[in-house]
Amino acid sequence: MYSDEIIPYEKLIRKNLQFMDMDLDTDDLFLSNYKAILQAYYDLKTFSGSYFRSRRLEKSWAFFIFNVKFV
């Protein structure tokens, strides 16, 4: 059975920042700000009511999937 490796989120962010630096040819611009980017992620707060909106969106999507017939 094939599966992906389980990677801690912090390590995944660091890896993606390395790829961004490589792809955008920015030396270590993104990776040098790793701690600030990670702290911004931890400090991020959800909007009030976003949980209920996401549940409603999920129900709407499920309704769409089960009731639309593709040709």
Automatic annotation (TrEMBL):
Name the UniProt record assigns to this protein: Uncharacterized protein
